[in-house]
């Protein structure tokens, strides 16, 4: 063991004499040793102590060693579990290894043999933890052209730093932001930096499916539960076992679906459509929405209890308007990617084209920028992209900023109102509910005015 930290070991057995003898042996060998009399107490101490290593008997009258193994693996996949038994068979040994046991040792055993196994288990765990930490550090340092999402603006870097802080935890994350701001990009980034990175990342857009189909996709169903259910189906929560599940546009879900999602978060289990027995699940949940959920709660369209269950860690993504300094960097990134996908020479942006990109407000955010550049590449026969290859809406407003440094000589009342509303909205980070409060108008009035101005709501 390369570090100086004393490994902790939880010993679980239903025989007090074995617990006492193993306790003395392991403490004398330098392990921080804890004991539990029987499997039920073992589960309780496992959760309370979170040991580095578990040493458990297989056959116990209340809860067996295989159940201890499953609970330990669910709590922390890096925890080695060594199973002991007086009645070892090849079949039972293979089952234990298939379930994820680090080692399967038969009683009685020599003390030196057990200590050697424990030492290897501690080294194995330390190596896994160090490797994961190294992978995470490498990903953090890869920069804009690597795994880290592109952007150098202060607001974007603040989001990335918070994402990197919460990634190693198991906390539920709620990502809020307008459509096209990169919510799934951040969700995948959190997954890649987490201890679940080697497992699957599943995602679903809750607004893209009707309620009945969405529940089947989320929770699964049993054969015959509805017309067309010709066989059992595993839901995405179960399919994403040990991994991360990304629920995009969760604000689009119905109250009935929200109740079921609340159960998932409270009890970590799902009930497939048409079934009666719950199925335990082990996933890290990340949700996202482009709606103001607090406003949805006031309207009665979203459950308060679900909101607080989801909003453990909140990430608010800035709009592209709020991180306009990142537009040149993002444009270069997309041009590189388009050229790589099309296997052709990379095209460049003329100075006037870049000016047009920076001047446009991008109501569709980063997604709209990417689509505009893909279109421009297709319409450009040469190597330099000119403004006429961009969508007309992008070039039409270059000389018409919403808030100018110089006020027109005789501005209309509507022009002044529009400029002020946009200034307040930008000052409040795009939050329409807070902007309406500052303006002293009802949110529905603000939405109507923005719609009249041609601003996406």
Polypeptide structure, described:
This protein is α/β, with parallel strands linked by helices and about 450 residues long. It has four domains: about 10-135, Rossmann fold, CATH 3.40.50; about 150-315, P-loop containing nucleotide triphosphate hydrolases (Rossmann fold, 3-Layer(aba) Sandwich); about 325-395, Helicase, Ruva Protein, domain 3, CATH 1.10.8; about 415-450, Orthogonal Bundle (Arc Repressor Mutant, subunit A). Helix content is about 45%, strand content about 15%. It is built from 19 helices and 16 strands. It has helices at about 15-30, 40-50, 65-75, 90-100, 110-140, 155-165, 185-190, 210-220, 235-240, 255-265, 295-300, 305-310, 325-340, 350-360, 365-380, 390-395, 415-425, 430-440, 445-450, and strands spanning about 10-15, 30-35, 55, 80-85, 105, 175, 200-205, 220, 235, 245-250, 270, 280, 285-290, 315, 350, 385. The strands form five sheets. It has a five-stranded parallel β-sheet with strand order 2-1-3-4-5, sandwiched between helices. α17 packs across α18 (about 430-440) and α18 crosses α19. The radius of gyration is 28 Å and the shape is elongated. The N and C termini lie far apart (about 60 Å). Mean pLDDT is about 85; it is low at about 140-145 and about 400-410.
Please tally the β strands and state the result.
16
Which consecutive residue ranges, at least 5 long each, have pLDDT under 50? 142-146, 398-408
What CATH calls the topology of the largest domain is Rossmann fold
Instruction: Give the mean pLDDT.
Output: 85
- Specify the number of helices: 19
CATH superfamily of the largest domain: P-loop containing nucleotide triphosphate hydrolases
CATH arch. level architecture of the largest domain: 3-Layer(aba) Sandwich
Distance between the termini: 58 Å
The CATH top-level class label of the largest domain: Alpha Beta
């Amino acid at each position: 063991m390369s570090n100086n930290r004393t490994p902790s070991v939880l010993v679980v057995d239903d025989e007090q004499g074995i617990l006492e003898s193993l306790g003395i042996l392991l403490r004398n060998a330098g392990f921080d040793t804890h004991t539990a009399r029987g499997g039920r107490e073992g589960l309780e101490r496992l959760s309370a102590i979170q040991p580095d290593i578990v040493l458990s008997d297989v056959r116990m009258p209340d809860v067996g060693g295989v159940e201890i193994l499953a609970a330990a693996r669910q709590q922390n996949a890096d925890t080695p579990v060594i199973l002991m038994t007086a009645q070892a068979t090849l079949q039972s040994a293979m089952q234990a290894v298939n379930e994820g046991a680090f080692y399967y040792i038969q009683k009685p055993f020599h003390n030196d043999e057990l200590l050697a196994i424990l030492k290897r288990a501690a080294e194995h765990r330390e190596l896994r933890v160090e490797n994961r930490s190294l992978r995470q550090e490498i990903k953090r340092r890869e920069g804009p052209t690597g795994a880290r999402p592109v952007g150098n603006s202060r607001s974007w870097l603040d989001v990335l730093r918070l994402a990197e802080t919460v990634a190693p935890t198991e906390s539920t994350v709620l990502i809020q932001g307008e459509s096209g701001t990169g919510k799934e990009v951040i969700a995948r980034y959190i997954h890649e930096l987490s201890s679940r990175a080697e497992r699957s990342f599943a995602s679903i857009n809750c607004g893209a499916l009707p309620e009945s189909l969405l529940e089947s996709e989320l929770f699964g169903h049993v054969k015959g539960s509805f017309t067309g259910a010709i066989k059992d189906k595993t839901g995405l929560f179960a399919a994403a076992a040990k991994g991360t599940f990304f629920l995009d546009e969760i604000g689009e879900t119905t109250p009935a679906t929200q109740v079921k999602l609340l159960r998932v978060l409270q009890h970590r289990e799902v009930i497939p459509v048409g079934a009666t027995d719950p199925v335990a699940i082990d996933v890290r949940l990340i949700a996202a929405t482009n709606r103001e959920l607090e406003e949805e709660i006031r309207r009665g369209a979203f459950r308060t209890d679900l909101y607080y269950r989801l909003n453990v860690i909140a990430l608010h993504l800035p709009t592209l308007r709020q991180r306009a300094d990142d537009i040149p960097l993002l444009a270069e990134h997309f041009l590189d990617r388009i050229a790589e996908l099309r296997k052709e020479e990379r095209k460049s942006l003329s100075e006037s084209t870049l000016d047009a990109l920076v001047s446009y407000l991008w109501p569709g955010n980063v997604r709209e920028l990417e689509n505009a550049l893909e279109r421009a590449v297709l319409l450009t026969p040469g190597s330099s992209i000119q403004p006429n290859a961009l969508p007309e809406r992008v070039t039409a407003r270059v000389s018409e900023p919403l808030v100018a440094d110089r006020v027109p000589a005789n501005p209309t009342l509507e022009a002044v109102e529009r400029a002020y509303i946009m200034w307040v909205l930008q000052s409040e980070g795009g939050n329409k509910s807070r902007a309406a409060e500052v303006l002293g108008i009802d949110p529905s009035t603000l939405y109507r005015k923005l719609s009249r101005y041609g601003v996406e709501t």
